[in-house]
Structure formats: structure tokens, C-alpha cells
Amino acid sequence: MSKVMQQPIGQKRLTNVAVVRLKKNGIRFEIACYKNKVLSWRSGVEKDLDEVLQSHTVYSNVSKGILANSKDLETAFGKGRDKTEICLEILDKGELQIAGKERESQLSSQFRDIATIVMQKTINPETQRPYTISMIERLMHEIHFAVDPNSSSKKQALEVIRELQKHFPIKRCPMRLQLTVPQQNFSSLLEKLNVWNASIVSKDESGSQPSTICEMEPGIFRDCDALIRNLQGRLEILAVSMHGEGDTHVDHSDDHEHVPPSRLAKESADPVVELGERVQRQTISVGNSSTEREVKQNKCSTCDAFVGDSKQYREHFKSDWHKHNLRRKTRQLPPLSAEECLADVEMDDSTEDLKDYSF
Q: CA–CA separation, 86 vs 140, rounded Å?
């Protein structure tokens, strides 16, 4: 007699299930939903309930297929309640059960969103420039920030900014506003702006309604809006976040502003001399910055050397010293100091000259 595998024909397997759990009156109730549909329903994107629920059935344990007791449903939700209404309540108020990797991916994505909002809304008060996204994430890890999946990213970003201001040099980006008030109230407006420490960019006092363009902290915006309403004026937001603009071309032009033409011609004619002078200036700047401000030293991992403050750090990445060590790093060679770099470049040039005269 052949053995036949007996399979239950009445068993209904639930696949692609997202479980929403609600605990009420000490009793656990669950419903089976489709993945990625619960969040769409709660955000208002999905309107069809049948596209969210796999079945209009209330369970006490979805994974084991145990249905909820009818007496427990009446005790928790009241008599005469339809199962669809109970499913709606569980869907709206219950907690979505997700897998560990899926939860980790969701928290990581929200952490990145919060860091992006913080980066867009803050600047470094010394350089008036925004921090990089990697720097913001590192600071958030240092204050041991934990993401709350039930709270919005913007709300948590504002809380992160307030916490970061207690430990690190960071501040909110100022808002740029254009304020227009009647002539008799313009002096009162200027006095109030002075009290708020607002930065006045420009003033236009011509006409019956003078206006001013100013930058202020976002936390004062509501008070400013109320003041403009009381003064019977008009407020216009020109920019929500103001960041410092780049000055690379200005620094580059300042380097050659007081250099004689003969010296510029000599530098352009001899690249080895130009490299030597650049490395010498870089070394001098590193020495001066280390004695004056040791706290704000920036280390270049490629050259394995300290290169001064943030401005000198940016200029270092344009130097031939850094570029030469970067080429050595791609060949898995150790970095060279400034003097060794100069000697290595001179040796390379001598080798190239010998190749030109070889027969």
C-alpha cells in the first residue's frame, strides 16, 4: 500500500501579510493587511479598504490563525459593532508589526531624512555655511539621538537642533523678510528689529510706505508677524534659509593681487619653482595656524598632516602636495611630507628630461 501525504484542504495560508495589533481591555486583537498598504491608508493615499485588508476578520493571533472570541469583541468594542468597523478602529489605532530588517531600514531612512532637514535649517556660526550631511549624522550619533517612528521627521529635526545647540557651535539659518509699514510706524519697526538683533540688509524710505529687507532668527517670525499686523503693514518671506555664499574666486584673486608681473611670469615659466613656493607657503600657514589656534586644526588623512583652519583646509585640497599624495594613495603608496613631495616631483622631472635625450 502506497503512502500518500495528507494535506489539509481547509487551511488558508496568509501570504504577504502585515499584521496590525491593538491591545484593548487587556485583550490582544489583530488584523491581516497587505504590506505597504497600511501606511498608504493612514496617510490618505489609499481609499479602498479592500485593498488594505486581506479579510474582514479579527484575530487574536494572525500567525496561528486563531480568531478572536465574540465575547471579547463585545467587551472591548461594545455590542452590535460590525466587524468592518472594528477592523477600521484597529487599522487606525493599532500598531503595525514589521520585521526586524524592515524596521531597521525604515528607521535608517527616517534618520537620514531628519539629518537632511537639520542640514537645511542650520549653519556654522563661524563660517556661515551649512554643515555636511555626514557631519550632522555624526553629531546626532554623539548626542545619542533615537528616531521615533510615530513622530514626524520635521518635528524631530527641530528637537535635534535644540539639543545640538547645547553641545556644538550650530545655529538656525536666518530668514530673509521684506517688511512694509506706513511712514508713521517705520521708526517703531526699526527699534523692534534692533531689539531682536535682526540684520538689516537694505532700507527703502521713499513713498508713503517705506520697507526694509532684514534677516532674523526663525524663532522670532511669529512675533514679527504679529507686530506687522498691529502696525498695519505687510510681511513677505524672501528666503526661508540663508546660507553663506562661496568665496573661492575672491581668495584666488587675492593671492595674486600684490604679486609683481615679473614674478608671475617666472612662476608660470618654472613649474618646479612654483610647486616649491606653494609647498613653502602651505608649510608656513600650517605652522602659524598650529601656534595661534590649536583647537581648530584640521587633519588631512591623505597627506597625514595638519593643515590649519577651515579656509586653509579647503585650499590644501587644491595644492599640488595633496594631489601628488592622492596619486600615491591610488597606487597604495605611503604619503609624503611637503619636502619629500618637492624632491619627488623634481626627480620625476629629471627622469622625463633624460627620456627626452635618450637614444
A: 41
pLDDT, tens only, 134-148: 899 998 999 899 888
Distance CA(38)–CA(97), nearest Å, equals: 11
Element (DSSP H or E) covering residue 97? strand 95-97
What is the torsional sign of CA 174, 179, 183, 189?
Answer: negative
Residue-wise pLDDT tens digits, 108-166: 888 999 999 998 888 888 888 888 888 999 989 998 998 888 788 888 998 999 899 88
How many other CB atoms are found less than 10 A from the CB of residue 1? 3
Q: What is the mean pLDDT of residues 306-322?
A: 81
Helix (H, G, I), strand (E, B) or coil at 6: coil
Q: Which three cell numbers stand for residue 34?
A: 497587505
Entry pTM: 0.47
* Rounded to 5°, angle at Cα 291 from 288 and 293: 95
Q: Which three cell numbers stand for residue 175?
A: 530668514
* Gap between the Cα atoms of 41 and 56, Å rounded: 16
DSSP 50: G
Task: Determine the Cα–Cα distance for residues 162 and 121; give it in Å rounded to an integer.
Answer: 12
